[in-house]
Amino acid sequence: MKSENEQRAGLLYGIGAYGMWGLVPMFWPLLKPAGAMEILAHRMVWSLAFVAVALLALRRWAWIPELLRQPRRLALITVAAGTITVNWGVYIWSVNAGHVVEASLGYFINPLVTIAMGVLLLKERLRPAQWAAVFIGFSAVVVLAVGAGRPPWVSLTLAFSFATYGLAKKKVNLGGLESLSAETAVLFLPALGFLVWLSATGSATVGSAGPGHLALLASTGLVTAVPLICFGAAAIRVPLSTLGLLQYLAPVFQFLLGVLYFHEAMPAERWAGFSLVWLALTILTWDALRTARRTRAEAVRLAALARAKGQAPAPSVTAPVIPLTTPPLTPEPAAGDPER
Question: For 310-330, what is each residue's pLDDT tens digit?
Answer without folding.
Answer: 655 545 444 444 443 333 333
